[in-house]
Automatic annotation (TrEMBL):
Start and end residues of each TIR domain: 14-170
Keywords, ordered alphabetically: Leucine-rich repeat, NAD, Plant defense, Repeat
PANTHER family to which the protein is assigned, alphabetical: DISEASE RESISTANCE PROTEIN (TIR-NBS-LRR CLASS)-RELATED (PTHR11017:SF385), LEUCINE-RICH REPEAT-CONTAINING PROTEIN (PTHR11017)
Protein name (record): TMV resistance protein N
InterPro entries registered for this protein in UniProt: Apaf_helical (IPR042197), Disease_R_plants (IPR044974), Leu-rich_rpt (IPR001611), Leu-rich_rpt_typical-subtyp (IPR003591), LRR_dom_sf (IPR032675), LRR_R13L4/SHOC2-like (IPR055414), NB-ARC (IPR002182), P-loop_NTPase (IPR027417)
Gene3D superfamilies: Helical domain of apoptotic protease-activating factors (1.10.8.430), P-loop containing nucleotide triphosphate hydrolases (3.40.50.300), Ribonuclease Inhibitor (3.80.10.10), Toll/interleukin-1 receptor homology (TIR) domain (3.40.50.10140)
GO BP, one annotated term: defense response
Domain of life: Eukaryota
Pfam families: LRR_14, NB-ARC, TIR, WHD_ROQ1
Keyword Cell cycle found: no
One function term, GO molecular function aspect: ADP binding
Keyword Disulfide bond part of the UniProt annotation: no
Length: 1379
C-alpha cells in the first residue's frame, strides 16, 4: 500500500475535456480515430480507452473515473455498440454525470437506439439472460436517453467527405463548449427535488384559497436555492403575475430600500408597465391594486422584520384567490409574529450525513463518493460543516485542487479549531488560501461591487484598471464557490460569504471606520467624510445615494408647455395654469434638492490610497484636485456637471463612468485633459452630450460606451486613431450621421456596435485595418451598402444588419469572412445573396427573415458545413435549392410565410439532424415521402398551409416528433402510421375543416398531453380514443348554428356516438381542460365523470345533455362549468365548491337548481334566458360573485330580488335582470365630478333600463348587449370611454334593469378628474339599432359611503351604506308586481 503522504487524487480540476465512448471493433480505426486526432490537434484533452489508461490499471474502474473527470462525452453509437456491456456501463455513467453529451449515430437509426431495436435487439436479449435486471434496465434507460438527444446521423451512404465534415463540426462545437465551461458550471444540488415536492403539496396550487408559506432556517442552509427551485417549478401553474424578490434584509438597509423593493414588485406584477413609486405608502397602494385583481406568485426572500411584510405584500386579505406567497427568513420568530400572514411553517434543515457527503465530494472531487484513501478525512470534514450546503460547497471547492493526503490533513486540522456554529470561520479557511491579490479582489467584491449588482465584464475592467489579473481572479473565486455568475452575467455572492468578507474589513478597526480599507455603509461614509477622518487605509468607497429623476433635453416640462400656450393666446385662465405649473415645478425641485447628498472634494484628500470611488446620484463640490491621484475607478452616475472641471487631473484613472449625466462635453471647450491610463469611458445615456472629446494621447483606452447619447452628432476624428480600442458601443445614438472616415488606427477593435443609429448612412470605406473585429452590429441604420474592404475582417464572427431597409446587396467578397458564425439580415431590402456566401464554412446561423425582395437562394448554400440554423420566414423565395440536403448538421429550418414556396426538394431527406421545421403559411401541397428520414425532428409547424391535403405514410417514421401543428390546413384524414409517433406531446388540428376522421391507431399516442381540434368536421372519435391516458388538455369545440325560429340545434349530418364519446372521456383521468362544445351529444353524463379528478374546465355547451351526475360535486378542482345552450337540461345537481364560473345561458328547460350557497368562490353566474328557473337558492351567500346575468329570467326575478343582501351587492360589478325601475337616489346622467376635500372617490355605479320591444324575436339569437357605454368628457373633448358587457339579448320583451359598478382600481374611476363630466350613452353607431336605453342614472361612491361592514338592521335608513340601500331597493321591488 502506498504511504499516506503519497496518496493523491487522480484529477486536477477536470482532467479530460472529452471522453470518447465507442465500440472498438466498429469504429476504432475509422471514424473514432480521425475524430480523436482532430480534437487532439486543436489542443483538447481527449480520453479513449487505449490512451488514457496506464498499464496494470483496473480498466473498468478507471474508465468510469475518466467519465467523471471529463467535461463532455462524444458517444459513437455503432451497430455493435450494445453487444459490449462495458460500453453500456460507460453510457449509463455518462448519462448519470449530467455533462454535455454529443451522440453520433454511426450506421444506426436513432429510433432503434431509443427502443433498443434493430441491431441492438439481440444484444439486449442476450444481456437479459446474463446480467441482473436492474443493470439491464439502467442500460436501456441510458440508450433511450441518448437516442432522444438531437445528435448527428452518419449512415452507410455517407462518404469520407461527409465524415470529415462531421468531425470538423464536432471539433467546433467542443471548442466553443470548452471556452464556456469555466463560467457555466452546472449547479449541483442534493435532495432538492424532494423538498420542492413537499412544498408544492403544502401550497396545493390547484386550490382556490390564498396560501402563505414561511420557510425558516439558519444562514447557508439553502433557503434561497430551495425558494428559487420552487419558483421555477410553479411558473407553469398559470399564475398571471410572478415576482421573486431576493436579499430583502440587505436591500432594506439601503437608503430608500423599501421603495426600491416596492418598485421591483410592482414592475414584476404589472408586466413592466408602471409609474415609479416614490413613497412607501404609495407603494402599498400600488401593490394592493395589482394583487386584488390578479392571481399572483410572490416570493419574499430573507425577510428579517415583520414590518417588511406590511410594506411588501400589504394585507393577506388583499390577495386574489389562488395566489401564493412564500417568505424565507433566518428567524422563526418573524413567522411567529406574522401569524396573520402565514398559514404554514417549513423548517429548512441541515442536510443528513449521506447527502452532505455527496455534495461535498462533488465540489471536492466531482464525484459522488470519496476517492480511495480519503474516506475518513472526508467524513471528518463533512461532520464539521454541520450539513450546511454553503459550507460544504465552499470548503469542497477549496479542496478541489488539493491533491495530496497531507494537504487534506492540514485542512482537517484547521477545521478542528472552529466552533460548531462558526460558519464564517469555515468560509474563512477558503479565503485564507487565496493569494494576496485574490484576497484584495474578494474584499472589493464583498464590500463594494456585490451590492451594485455589477456584471462580470465590468468588474474585470475595474480590476484590470487596478493592475490586477481580473479575469483570472474571478475564475478562481468562481471555482472556489466564493462568487457565482448569474444567467445575465451579473456577479452574485451568498450573503454569508459577503458578511464574512465584510467582517474581515470591519475587524481592521472596530471603532473607527476611517481606519478600515473599504467603506460601504452610507451613514458611516458621510460621518467619515464630514468629520474628515478618512485615512490612507481607505481603498474603496461606495456611497448609496438616491437616484434622481432626470429629464432629457427633448422633453418639454408642463410649465414650458403652459407658458407657450399663454404666449400664443394670452388669457387669465392660461396665466393661472402657468403659475400653477411653475409652482409645482418649484416644489418638485426643492424636494429633489432636499434629497441630494452634497460631498466636499477636500474630504477625500487624506485618502491617498483610494482606488475605487462610487458617488452616484450625489453632488461633489470644491476643488477636484483634492481627489486622490491614485484613483483607478470613478463612477458618478447622474453627475450634475456640464463638464469635468479643469482642476481635476485623472493621472491614474482607469475606468470613468459618468452615465446618465448632464455632461455636454467631457472636459470643457477650453480644456482637454489627457488621461493616459484611462481604459474604459462610459458616457451612456448622457442625453446632452453632442460630441466626443479629442482622444489623442489616450493610449490605454480599450472600451468606449456611448449608448443612448441621443444628441450625439459628432465623433472626433481622433477616435479612428485609437489603436488600443477593443470595444465601441454607439447603440441608439440616433442623431449620429457619420463616423470618422479614417479608422486605420483601430487595429485591435473587436466589437463595433452601431445598432439603432437611425441616421447613419455609411460605414467607413476602408475597414482593412480592423483585422481583429469579431462583432459588427448595424441593425436599424440607414446604411445602404457594406464596403468592399469588408473582406479584410477575417476574424469577424457576428455580422448583423437587421432592419437596414436600404441595404439591397452584399459585396461579392462576403465569402472571404472565414470566421463568420452568424449572419443576420432580417427585414433588409436584399435582392440577392452572393454565390460566395457558400464559402462561409464556419457559419452556424443564417437569418433572412422578411427579405421580401429575395427570391432565389444560391446553390452554394449547400457548402455551409457548419450551418445549424437557417431562417427564410416571410421572404420572397420561390424554392429551396436541391443542395440544401447537403446541410447534414442543420438543426432548425424555417420558411414560414414564404407564400411563393409550393414544394420541398426531395433532397430534404438528407437533413438527418433537423430538430425544428417551420412551414407555416406556405403553398406546399404535400410533403415528400422522404420526410420520414428526419429521425431527429422534434417540432413540425404547418399552420395555414391551405393547399396541404394529406400527410405521407412515412410520416409515422418521425419517431422523435413531440409537437405537430396543422392548424387551418385542408387535410381530410391523418395516416394510420401517425399512431407510431410515440413521443408526440402536442397536436394541433383546429380549423382543419376537411378533417372527417381520426385513424384507429390514434389511441397509440401514449405521450399526447395537448390535443386541440376545434372546428373540424369530425363526428366520431375512434374506439381507441380513451387510451390517450396522458392527455391534459382536450379542445374539440365546434360552433354550431342554431335554428333562428325554434332555437333548436341544427343536427349533424351524422349523429355522434354520444355514449361512446362520453365513456372515452371518463378514461382520460389526467384531463385538466375538456371542451366538447357543439358536438350535439345527447343523453346523460355518466357517473364515471368523477374519475376526472384533475378537471379544472369543463365545457359541454351546445349539446343535448339532459342530466348531470350527482358525482359532479366530487370534481374538487373544477373552476369553470360551461353548459350554455344545453336546451334539454332540466335540473342542476350539487356542484363542487371550487367553482368560479357557471354558464347556463339558454338552458331553457332548466327549472330547478340545487342550493348553491357552498359556491363561495363563484365569480360569474350566467343564467341568460333560463326563463323556467323559479329560484336560485343560496344566492345570498355568494360573497365572491362579481357578475350576475339574468337576462330573460322572468320566472325567478322576484324571488332573486328578495335574496339580494348587502354582502352580495358589495362585490357585484355587473347585474342585469328583468325590471323597469332604477334607484331614484342615483343622479340622472350626465354627472359632473367635483373632487371632495379629504374624501377619495372609491367607485362609480351606473344604472339604467333597457327596452327590447322593437327588436324582432327571430333576430335576437346571437346578439350581444354591448351598446351601453360610459364616457368621460373634459368640456367637449372625450377623454375616455368604456363599454358595458351585458351579454345576450333576452327572448322576452320585458324591460331590464342593469347595474354596473366600477371599483377604485378601474380605469373609469382613475380617468375621472375634477370638473370632468360622466355620461351614460348608447354606442354611436349602435350594434343593435332598435335597442332603447332609458332612465340612466349614476352614483359616485366616496370614501365612507360603502365601507361599513357591520349589521345595519338597527340603523336609520339615512345611515345605510350604499350596498345596504341597494339591497333594500331590490327587496322592495320584489314585492311590487309592476317592477
Amino acid at each position: 500500500m502506498m504511504p499516506e503522504s503519497d496518496i493523491t487524487l487522480s484529477s486536477f480540476r477536470l482532467r479530460w475535456d472529452v471522453f470518447l465512448s465507442f465500440r472498438g471493433t466498429d469504429t476504432r480505426d475509422t471514424f473514432t480515430m480521425s475524430l480523436y486526432h482532430a480534437l487532439h490537434r486543436r489542443g483538447l484533452r481527449v480520453f479513449r480507452d487505449d490512451d488514457g489508461l496506464e498499464r496494470g490499471d483496473e480498466i473498468q474502474k478507471k474508465l468510469l473515473e475518466a467519465i467523471e473527470d471529463s467535461a463532455a462525452a462524444v458517444v459513437v453509437l455503432s451497430p455493435d455498440y450494445a453487444s459490449s456491456h462495458w460500453c453500456l456501463d460507460e453510457l449509463a455513467k455518462i448519462c448519470k454525470c449530467g455533462r454535455l453529451i454529443l451522440p453520433v449515430f454511426y450506421w444506426v437509426d436513432p429510433s432503434h437506439v431509443r427502443k433498443q431495436k434493430g441491431p441492438f435487439e439481440d444484444s439486449f436479449g442476450s444481456h437479459a439472460n446474463k446480467f441482473p435486471e436492474e443493470s439491464v434496465q439502467q442500460w436501456r434507460d441510458a440508450m433511450k436517453k441518448v437516442g432522444g438527444i438531437a445528435g448527428y446521423v452518419l449512415d452507410e451512404k455517407c462518404d469520407s467527405e461527409k465524415s470529415d465534415k462531421l468531425i470538423q463540426h464536432l471539433v467546433q462545437i467542443l471548442l466553443k463548449q470548452m471556452r464556456n465551461t469555466p463560467l457555466n458550471v452546472a449547479p449541483y444540488t442534493v435532495g432538492l427535488d424532494d423538498r420542492v415536492e413537499e412544498l408544492k403539496k403544502l401550497l396545493d396550487v390547484k386550490s382556490n384559497d390564498v396560501r402563505v408559506l414561511g420557510l425558516y432556517g439558519m444562514g447557508g442552509v439553502g433557503k434561497t436555492t430551495l425558494a428559487k427551485s420552487l419558483f421555477n417549478s410553479l411558473v407553469v401553474h398559470n399564475f398571471e403575475r410572478r415576482s421573486f424578490i431576493t436579499n430583502i434584509r440587505s436591500q432594506v438597509s439601503k437608503h430608500d430600500g423599501l421603495v426600491s423593493l416596492q418598485n421591483t414588485i410592482h414592475g414584476d406584477l404589472s408586466g413592466g408597465k408602471k409609474d415609479p413609486i416614490n413613497d412607501v405608502n404609495d407603494g402599498i397602494s400600488a401593490i394592493k391594486r395589482i394583487v386584488q385583481e390578479n392571481r399572483v406568485l410572490l416570493i419574499l426572500d430573507d425577510v428579517d422584520e415583520v414590518e417588511q411584510l406590511k410594506f411588501l405584500m400589504g394585507e393577506r386579505e388583499w390577495f386574489y384567490k389562488g395566489s401564493r406567497v412564500v417568505i424565507t427568513t433566518r428567524d422563526r420568530e418573524v413567522l411567529t409574529k406574522a401569524k396573520s400572514y402565514v398559514d404554514k411553517h417549513y423548517e429548512v434543515k441541515e442536510l443528513e450525513f449521506s447527502p452532505s457527503m455527496e455534495l461535498f465530494c462533488y465540489h471536492a472531487m466531482r464525484r459522488k463518493e470519496p476517492a480511495e484513501g480519503f474516506l475518513d478525512l472526508a467524513k471528518q470534514i463533512v461532520e464539521k460543516t454541520g450539513g450546511l450546503p454553503l459550507a460544504l460547497e465552499v470548503f469542497g471547492s477549496f479542496l478541489f485542487d488539493k491533491r495530496t493526503m497531507r494537504e487534506w490533513k492540514d485542512a482537517v486540522e484547521k477545521m478542528k479549531q472552529i466552533s460548531p456554529s462558526g460558519i464564517h470561520d469555515v468560509l474563512k479557511i477558503s479565503f485564507d488560501a487565496l493569494d494576496e491579490q485574490e484576497k484584495c479582489i474578494f474584499l472589493d467584491i464583498a464590500c463594494l461591487f456585490v451590492q451594485m449588482e455589477m456584471k462580470r465584464e465590468d468588474v474585470v475592467d475595474i480590476l484590470n484598471g487596478c493592475n490586477f489579473r481580473g479575469d483570472i481572479a474571478l475564475t478562481v473565486l468562481t471555482a472556489r464557490c466564493l462568487i457565482k455568475i448569474t444567467g445575465d452575467g451579473k456577479l452574485w455572492m451568498h450573503d454569508q460569504v459577503r458578511d464574512m468578507g465584510r467582517q474581515i474589513v470591519h475587524s481592521e478597526n472596530l471603532a473607527d471606520p476611517g481606519l478600515r480599507s473599504r467603506l460601504w455603509d452610507r451613514d458611516e461614509i458621510l460621518i467619515v467624510l464630514k468629520s474628515m477622518k478618512g485615512t490612507r487605509n481607505v481603498q474603496g468607497i461606495v456611497v448609496d445615494c438616491v437616484k434622481r429623476r432626470m429629464s432629457t433635453p427633448r422633453d418639454r416640462s408642463a410649465d414650458e408647455i403652459t407658458w407657450e400656450n399663454f404666449r400664443r393666446k394670452p388669457s387669465c385662465k392660461l396665466a393661472l395654469e402657468y403659475i400653477k405649473e411653475k409652482y409645482k415645478k418649484y416644489v418638485r425641485d426643492r424636494e429633489e434638492k432636499a434629497k441630494e447628498v452634497v460631498l466636499q472634494a477636500k474630504n477625500f484628500e487624506s485618502m491617498v490610497s483610494l482606488r475605487l470611488l462610487q458617488i452616484n446620484y450625489s453632488r461633489l463640490e470644491g476643488q477636484f484636485r483634492c481627489l486622490p491621484a491614485g484613483l483607478k475607478w470613478l463612477q458618478w452616475k447622474q453627475c450634475p456637471l456640464r463638464y469635468m472641471p479643469s482642476s481635476y487631473s485623472p493621472l491614474e484613472l482607469a475606468v470613468m463612468d459618468l452615465s446618465e449625466s448632464n455632461i455636454e462635453t467631457l472636459w470643457g471647450r477650453s480644456n482637454n485633459k489627457v488621461a493616459e491610463h484611462l481604459m474604459v469611458l462610459n458616457l451612456s445615456n448622457c442625453h446632452r452630450l453632442t460630441a466626443t472629446p479629442d482622444l489623442t494621447g489616450y493610449l490605454s483606452l480599450k472600451k468606449i460606451v456611448l449608448e443612448e447619447c441621443s444628441h450625439l452628432i459628432r465623433i472626433h476624428e481622433s477616435l479612428g486613431n485609437l489603436s488600443s480600442l477593443v470595444h465601441l458601443n454607439l447603440r441608439f445614438c440616433y442623431n449620429l450621421v457619420e463616423l470618422p472616415s479614417d479608422v486605420s488606427g483601430m487595429k485591435h477593435l473587436e466589437d463595433l456596435i452601431l445598432s439603432d443609429c437611425w441616421k447613419l448612412k455609411a460605414l467607413p470605406k476602408d475597414l482593412s485595418c480592423m483585422i481583429c473585429l469579431r462583432q459588427l452590429l448595424i441593425d436599424n441604420t440607414a446604411v445602404t451598402e457594406l464596403p468592399e474592404s469588408i473582406f479584410h475582417l477575417t476574424k469577424l464572427e457576428n455580422l448583423s444588419a437587421n432592419g437596414c431597409n436600404s441595404l439591397k446587396r452584399l459585396p461579392t467578397c462576403i465569402g472571404k469572412l472565414c470566421s463568420l458564425q452568424e449572419l443576420s439580415l432580417n427585414h433588409t431590402a436584399l435582392e440577392e445573396l452572393p454565390y460566395s456566401v457558400g464559402s462561409l464554412e464556419k457559419l452556424e446561423k443564417l437569418s433572412l427573415v422578411g427579405c421580401k425582395s429575395l427570391s432565389v437562394i444560391p446553390n452554394s448554400i449547400g457548402n455551409l458545413i457548419s450551418l445549424a440554423q437557417l431562417f427564410f420566414d416571410i421572404s420572397g423565395i420561390k424554392e429551396l435549392p436541391a443542395s440544401i440536403g447537403s446541410l447534414s448538421y442543420l438543426r432548425k429550418l424555417s420558411v414560414g410565410g414564404c407564400t411563393s414556396l409550393d414544394k420541398l426538394p426531395v433532397s430534404i431527406e438528407a437533413l438527418v439532424s433537423i430538430v425544428e421545421l417551420q412551414l407555416d403559411g406556405t403553398k406546399i401541397t404535400t410533403l415528400p415521402d422522404q420526410i420520414g428520414a428526419m429521425q431527429m425532428l422534434e417540432k413540425l409547424e404547418m399552420k395555414n398551409c391551405e393547399n396541404l391535403r394529406f400527410l405521407p405514410v412515412s410520416f409515422g417514421c418521425l419517431s422523435a416528433l413531440t409537437s405537430l401543428d396543422l392548424h387551418e390546413t385542408n387535410i381530410t384524414e391523418l395516416p394510420e402510421s401517425i399512431g407510431m409517433l410515440e413521443n408526440l406531446i402536442r397536436l394541433r388540428l383546429d380549423m382543419c375543416k376537411q378533417l372527417q376522421r381520426l385513424p384507429d391507431s390514434f389511441g397509440n399516442l401514449k405521450s399526447l398531453q395537448w390535443l386541440q381540434m376545434k372546428e373540424t368536421t369530425l363526428t366520431h372519435l375512434p374506439d381507441s380514443f380513451g387510451m390517450l391516458t396522458s392527455l391534459v388538455k382536450l379542445d374539440m369545440e365546434r360552433r354550431l348554428y342554431l335554428n333562428g325560429a325554434t332555437g333548436a340545434i341544427i343536427p349533424n349530418k351524422q349523429e355522434p356516438n354520444s355514449k361512446a364519446i362520453l365513456r372515452s372521456f371518463c378514461n382520460l383521468t389526467l384531463l385538466e381542460e375538456l371542451n366538447a362544445h357543439g358536438w350535439g351529444m345527447c343523453g346523460k353524463i355518466p357517473d364515471d365523470f368523477e374519475k376526472l379528478s384533475s378537471l379544472e374546465t369543463l365545457s359541454l355547451g351546445h349539446n343535448n345533455i339532459f342530466s348531470l351526475p350527482a358525482s359532479m360535486i366530487g370534481l374538487s378542482y373544477l373552476k369553470k362549468l360551461l353548459l350554455s345552450d344545453c336546451r334539454e337540461l332540466i335540473f342542476l345537481p350539487p356542484l363542487p365548491s371550487s367553482l368560479e364560473e357557471l354558464n347556463l345561458a339558454n338552458c331553457i328547460a332548466v327549472q330547478y337548481m340545487h342550493d348553491i350557497s357552498n359556491l363561495k368562490l363563484l365569480e360569474e353566474l350566467n343564467l341568460t334566458n333560463c326563463e323556467k328557473v323559479v329560484d336560485i337558492p343560496g344566492l345570498e351567500h355568494l360573497k365572491s360573485l362579481r357578475r350576475l346575468y339574468m337576462n330573460g329570467c322572468i320566472g325567478c326575478s322576484h324571488a332573486v330580488k328578495r335574496r339580494f343582501t348587502k354582502v352580495l351587492l358589495k362585490k357585484l360589478e355587473i347585474l342585469i335582470m328583468p325590471g323597469s325601475r332604477v334607484p331614484d337616489w342615483f343622479t340622472a346622467e350626465p354627472v359632473v365630478f367635483s373632487k371632495q376635500r379629504n374624501r377619495e372617490l372609491k367607485g362609480i355605479i351606473c344604472s339604467g333600463v333597457l327596452s327590447f320591444n322593437n327588436i324582432p324575436e327571430n333576430q335576437r339569437e346571437g346578439l350581444q348587449l354591448e351598446d351601453v357605454q360610459g364616457k368621460i368628457f373634459n368640456l367637449t373633448d372625450k377623454v375616455f370611454s368604456t363599454t358595458f358587457r351585458l351579454l345576450g339579448v333576452p327572448r322576452t320583451n320585458k324591460d331590464h334593469i342593469f347595474l354596473r359598478r366600477f371599483g377604485v382600481n378601474s380605469s373609469l374611476v382613475f380617468q375621472l378628474q375634477d370638473k370632468y363630466t360622466l355620461h351614460l350613452k348608447k354606442r354611436d353607431p349602435p350594434l343593435i339599432e332598435r335597442l332603447e336605453l332609458k332612465n340612466c342614472r349614476i352614483l359616485l361612491v366616496f370614501e365612507g359611503d360603502d365601507d361599513y361592514v357591520g349589521d345595519e338592521g338597527s340603523l336609520d335608513e339615512s345611515q345605510y351604506s350604499v350596498s345596504q340601500k341597494l339591497a333594500k331597493f331590490f327587496n322592495f321591488a320584489a314585492n311590487d308586481p309592476c317592477v
